[in-house]
Design brief:
By secondary structure, the protein is mainly beta. The chain has three helices and twelve strands; from the N terminus they run H-E-E-E-E-E-H-E-H-E-E-E-E-E-E. It has helices spanning about 25-35, 80-85, 100-105; strands at about 40, 40-45, 50-55, 60-65, 65-75, 90-95, 120, 125-130, 135-145, 150-160, 165-170, 170-175. The strands form three sheets. It has a seven-stranded antiparallel beta sheet with strand order 3-2-6-9-10-5-4. Strands 1-11-12 form a three-stranded antiparallel beta sheet, with no helix packed on it. A two-stranded antiparallel sheet has the order 7-8. It is globular and about 50 Å long.
């Protein structure tokens, strides 16, 4: 639904908008961005015989020639550091049946892979068994952006299965229903 604009201020009525020169409060920004439903993925890699993984919902395709994608990780995250060092990573797009995995891969200090069924790519990248899709990538570049790193990867291979995707919206996980 469109929000009517007042002719005198040209600001959305009833909003908590700021001027073009101000900034939005980080908590408000998080709440507003939570309105954008996304898929959920776990980014994984192996570095120095240790497995690393992190849950992300900031995943997007970038290019078809060459095939590229990007995702964002918190600055200094152990998974981000391992990816920076290894220069290879895998993207595991989660299915609805994997709704318990995102929390596991966001908690610090635990063995995130304990009791998780995994396979390995030819390059030794951990792949979460049963994921809706799996992509293996090589780091093309990493950009600093505020308190996160944007990792751009060239896609080397990809597979998918037929299943309902896991969706993240307003801080909760759920499923997708086709319209019509």
């Amino acid at each position: 639904m469109n929000t009517p604009l007042s002719s005198s201020s040209m600001q959305p009525q009833g909003s908590q908008a700021t001027s073009l020169h101000g900034t939005i409060d980080p908590n408000r920004f998080r709440s507003v961005m939570g309105s954008f439903a996304t898929g959920v993925a776990v980014i994984t890699t192996e570095w120095n015989s240790e497995l690393f993984g992190a849950t992300v919902n900031s995943l997007t395709s970038v290019s078809l020639e060459p095939c590229m994608l990007l995702f964002c990780v918190s600055d200094g995250s152990t998974t981000g550091v391992a990816i920076r060092n290894r220069r290879l990573f895998s993207v595991n797009v989660l299915g609805q049946h994997q709704s318990a995995l995102p929390a596991r891969f966001t908690k610090a200090g635990n063995n995130r892979f304990a009791d998780v069924a995994i396979d390995f790519s030819a390059d030794g990248l951990p792949l979460l068994r049963g994921a809706a899709a799996q992509l293996c990538c090589r780091v093309a570049t990493i950009h600093k952006a505020g308190d996160h790193d944007i990792i751009l990867g060239e896609v080397l291979s990809g597979e998918d299965i037929t299943c309902s995707p896991l969706v993240f919206h307003k801080g909760t996980y759920g499923s997708f229903q086709r319209a019509g």
